[in-house]
Design goal:
By secondary structure, the chain is of the alpha+beta class. It folds into three domains: 179 residues, Acetylcholine Binding Protein, Chain: A (Distorted Sandwich), CATH 2.70.170; 119 residues, Methane Monooxygenase Hydroxylase, Chain G, domain 1 (Up-down Bundle), CATH 1.20.58.390; 51 residues, no CATH class. It is built from seven helices and eleven strands. Strands 1, 2, 3, 5, 6, 7 and 9 form a seven-stranded mixed β-sheet that branches. The protein has a four-stranded antiparallel β-sheet with strand order 4-8-11-10, with no helix packed on it. The longest helix is centred in the C-terminal third of the chain and has 32 residues. The two termini are 56 Å apart.
């Protein structure tokens, strides 16, 4: 070529065929609109029977060699698989509209999954020509969406088209950028809400009667349910640690730890319930249990009613004294009382952990 050729182009997106974030693969269906000037293809229509346009096959005329610069598997040439026609005008302008399904690499950032936004840059390289021979110019700085079909999982919120020059290697690069936001309704219904409800079940374990023998089995079931959700989430996410691990995976890990702690609390309460009554309750534990179970309130109320028995005869006074002693014994703290008070303490602690983990997750996602 005698002089530099400038490729004017636009890019139109037909649809997003697939975005596999596990493998980092993006499949796009779209087409380019190229036009350039070739002085060798100029003619006077009056000398050629008023011919205004001539259509050629790609193999018969010059077309730029452009390859996909960010492939997932192998390099793919633009217009290589199908023979797209090239139309020339009398002024020497060539028009070429190659389209294809391009499979490109796009590393996902799943930190905010399933409320994440992905930015994928698809690059094309003008191959075999230096920047002094072939340059490129984008006629629009946005992707054309006139024939675009929306995707069921991703919202296309922004696009851009630009050209770059790699001076070190002398290459012209065409960049197509897509910014996609995940439609999270499906994941909210089928993953987020079930995880929250399963975490809520941890609190209810302390409402089960200790004599039923179902507390430990119930806790293990909730723990396994959270582990199942953790497996499902890991299967839907790439096994990478960069740029960041998903917040959902961290939340599931926290829920798993909370569930393990609740199961430990359950075993401790059952230990108290089945403690032999012959073993004395330590004073500090008894004081805490008496406070939690309001034993002191009941004792003070009954003390005010018992002295009336002393106004009777000597025989009845002895009965009153005996009743008072018996009433004092009834307020002694047993291991069953310790178990009940531990249910109260551990259930409150479980409620605090449940709300704390969910509130922190919501704040990190939406703020």
């Amino acid at each position: 070529m005698r002089q530099s050729t400038t490729l004017h182009f636009t890019f139109d997106l037909v649809r997003i065929a697939e975005y596999d974030e596990v493998n980092g693969k993006l499949s796009l269906v779209g087409f380019f609109s190229f036009f350039w000037h070739d002085f060798r293809m100029e003619w006077d229509p009056e000398n050629y029977n008023e011919t205004e346009n001539i259509i050629f096959e790609e193999k018969d005329v010059w077309v730029p060699l452009i390859v996909l610069g960010s492939p997932q598997d192998e390099f793919q040439r633009v217009g290589d698989k199908d023979n797209f026609f090239v139309r020339y005008s009398p002024q020497g302008y060539g028009f070429w509209y190659p389209g294809d399904i391009w499979v490109t690499a796009c590393t996902p950032d799943v930190y905010m999954y399933p409320y994440d936004t992905q930015t994928c840059e698809v690059t094309y390289v003008v191959w075999g020509y230096s920047i002094q021979e072939v340059t490129a110019k984008a006629e629009r700085d946005k992707i054309g969406l006139g024939v675009y079909s929306p995707h069921g999982m991703w919202d296309l919120i922004d696009t851009s088209v630009r050209t770059d020059v790699d001076k070190d290697r002398g290459l012209t690069i065409l960049s197509v950028v897509l910014v996609m936001k995940r439609i999270s309704t499906f994941h909210l219904i089928n993953m987020i809400l079930p995880i929250v409800f399963v975490g809520l079940l941890n609190i209810l374990v302390f409402l089960l009667p200790a004599q039923s023998g179902e507390r430990v089995g119930y806790s293990i079931t909730v723990l396994l349910a959270i582990a199942v959700f953790q497996t499902i989430a890991s299967n839907n996410l790439p096994s990478v640690s960069k740029p960041q691990v998903s917040l959902l995976c961290i939340k599931l890990l926290v829920d798993l730890v909370v569930s393990a702690v609740v199961m430990t609390f359950t075993i401790v309460t059952l230990y108290f319930y089945h403690m032999p009554e012959s073993r004395k309750v330590p004073c500090c534990i008894a004081a805490v249990s008496r406070f939690l179970l309001c034993k002191n309130c009941c004792k003070n109320t009954k003390k005010r009613s018992n002295p009336s028995t002393y106004r009777d005869s000597v025989g009845t006074s002895k009965i009153g004294i005996t009743e008072l002693a018996t009433d004092g014994d009834s307020h002694q703290i047993t291991w069953t009382d310790v178990g009940k008070s531990s249910d109260i303490v551990f259930s409150i602690f479980s409620v605090i952990m449940f709300f704390a983990s969910n509130i922190v997750f919501i704040l990190l996602i939406f703020l």
